[in-house]
Amino acid sequence: MAAVMPAPAASRLFLSGNEAVARAVWEAGTRVAAAYPGTPATEMLEVLSTYPDIYAEWSVNEKVSLEVAIGAAYAGSRAFCCMKHVGMNVASDALMTLTLTGVVGGLVIAIADDVGLSSSQNEQDSRFWGRFAHVPVFEPADSQEAYAMTLAAYELSEQFQVPVILRMTTRINHVKGLVVVGERASRAGAGFKKDPARFVMVPGNAGRRIPLMFKRDGELRSAAEQSPLNYIVAGSDRRVGFITSGPAFEHVREAFPEAPVLKLGFSCPLPFDKCRELAALVEQVVVVEEVEPLVETELKARGIAVVGKEILPLQGELSPNVLKPAIARLLGEPVPDIPPAPAKVFPRPPTMCVACPHLGVYYTLSQVRNLNISGDIGCYTLGAGHPWQAMDTCVSMGASMGIALGMDKGRGESDKDKRIVAVIGDSTFLHMGMQGLLDMVYNKANVTVLLLDNRAVGMTGGQDNPGNGRDIYGEDAPRVDFAKLCAALGVKQERIHTVNPYELPVLFKTVRDEVKVPDVSVIITDQPCVLIKDYHKLKPYEVHDDKCTGCGNCLDVGCPAIHVTRRGKQTKASGREVDLAFVRIESSVCTGCGLCLQPCAPDAIQHYVPVSPIKLMTKGGCAV
Question: Of 155, 218, 526, 554, whose CA is between 20 and 30 Å from 105?
């Protein structure tokens, strides 16, 4: 990805929160930025990779990305790391010791919480990490604040030699707003200065650092009390005041423009005096926070009377249509009529892309009987849905491996004859799956692993990874050989197979044979994601109506280019009635992968032949 010339200082730019943070990171003189892709955080590093004078990398996982940033900060350079909320679960091992060593150069860690579960398996609240790790937390409410708070976070980080968490949510990451930007401040790294008592965290050294951490907590709380990022918005309606942060602040201001509000931008440590100041202005205080009652609990523990999750939901965004009825009930007022939600569009369930190489995998798994299938995080998680229903578990990155091993070792009487299959993608395997495969081999598992190598981090937009031979800049990089890697982890050579997932007979036979072998097997599917440049389209297909019998076999592949045109029923000679589904292929999006062709019994699917406008007109149609 080529570097771009950044817009000059004082420009007013229309930026998402992710883009605003990236701009501020660059302006702050940051020298190193690292991340692993994860929605809604991905674009921060993607944008940074386009700026000059900064090193950016896709790391193999979030823990490694944070450790890379820590190393740069130890060397006296400003550093940046970003991830989605569940990514910090992976990186927390490093974070919990970093809080003791502190940093030299400023270090900002942006964590993007997926409030509302747009693309995540849970709705984790990352503000907990501030309390747990004893580090400050900033919470922007819009793109301009995301930009400004990132710059302020670097100053605070270096002032107190502590990493700063920038807690964002999907509403901030992806919504755009006007941002006034500045110039980059060039900063040279001071260089790493040896200090084993600080940077070598053996128990003796760690014990001496803990009192310094608690002393820093007190200093940070004083800084939060005085910070201009925490301020009270005056209001004339004193019946209810609000304490809130992040995008919830915007919701409160929209719903109750006349109410006093304490906006927490520097929310951890919590500025208790500021909260008492707000409480003295109003009759009741409502804490509006997404999603856990952290502030509410801390205020109640300090004897400050507040209301929170007694009246507000514990999940989802706290938009005005949620806030208004809750406050009306609190005040004993009539609950306002909330306009009905607009009519829903025709439902479009999530599915894989046209010609996705995973389609053949799940079609095959749906045809093989007697399987328990542990899945993982990625595009292929959609294999749990219709029409395949070929995934039985999905927990976290890399979990398919350990869960499959546990299923094998923990078999009940009803499972003794089941074959165990683990499905994992290439980037997920490199992120957290290798250890699970090693554990399977070491502990003599009876599991078949399907390693789906589509040469991209597909779910988050097709980012590069060590499995496709390109770095974040699109430049050549060493490419992992998955077959050799699996062999190095102990899988027997004869149990490693690389197959083309578009060749269904070969794939089916390989899966059927390997699940019967009481050993660890790995089947690698090696075809690129259809959305990256490595994929090359072939001639599309169409359905010949005069040959289609309505068997519907092609629908079982699950390709969204295939549409049902009409349904019917047929009574067989045996008297059994069967459903019929007559179909067509949207040739404009078909890529010619040939998956649907293989289960088509009557040979009704053939290469598409475009009809010229002249022929259309001779048939009574019109080409215009």
Answer: 218
Tokens of 143: 């793109």
Residue 69, classed as helix, strand or coil, is: helix
Task: Please identify which residue in the block is written with the tokens 């690292």.
Answer: 34
Question: In three state form, how does the secondary structure of 483-526 look?
Answer: HHHHHHCCCCHHHEEEECCCCHHHHHHHHHHHCCCCCCEEEEEE
Reply yes or no on whether the pLDDT at 620 is more than 50. Answer: no
The stretch 380-401 carries a mean pLDDT of: 93
Region 383-394: mean pLDDT is 92
**How many residues are listed for the chain in this entry?**
624
The residue among 178, 317, 303, 330 whose CA lies nearest residue 244 is 317
Taking only the tens place, the pLDDT of each residue in 55-97 is 999 999 999 999 999 999 999 999 999 999 999 999 999 999 9
Between the two ends of the chain, the Cα-to-Cα distance in Å is 41
Residue 84: half-sphere exposure toward Cβ, Cα within 13 Å: 24
Residues 211, 209: Cα–Cα separation, whole Å: 6
Distances (CA, A) of 79 to 68, 73, 76, 109, 248: 9, 6, 9, 9, 29
User: What secondary structure does DSSP assign to 445-485, as a single string?
Assistant: --EEEEEEE-SSBGGGT-B--TTTTB-TTS-B-----HHHH
Contact between residue 24 and residue 17 where contact means Cβ atoms under 8 Å apart: no
When pLDDT is cut at 50, 70 and 90, the band that residue 230 belongs to is: very high
In this predicted structure, the answer to whether residue 362 has a pLDDT above a threshold of 80 is yes
Residue spans of beta strands (DSSP E) within 359-398 = 371-374
d(CA 20, CA 223): 25
Tokens of 224: 């939060």
Look at residue 7 and tell me whether its pLDDT is greater than 90: no
Burial 145-181 (b: 16+ CB within 10 A, else e): bbbbbbbbbbebbbebbbbbbbbbbbbbbbeebebeb
CB 593 within 8 A of CB 503: no
Per-residue pLDDT at 618 = 52
DSSP per-residue codes, 185-233: -----------HHHH---HHHHHHHHHHHHHHHHHHHHHHHH-TTEEEE
Closest CA to 450 of 433, 467, 466, 435: 433
Which pLDDT score is estimated for 4? 60
Tokens of 178: 């006007």
Q: How far is CA 359 from CA 365, 426, 556, 593, 595, in A?
A: 10, 16, 9, 11, 8
Q: Which percentage of the chain shows pLDDT scores above 70?
A: 96
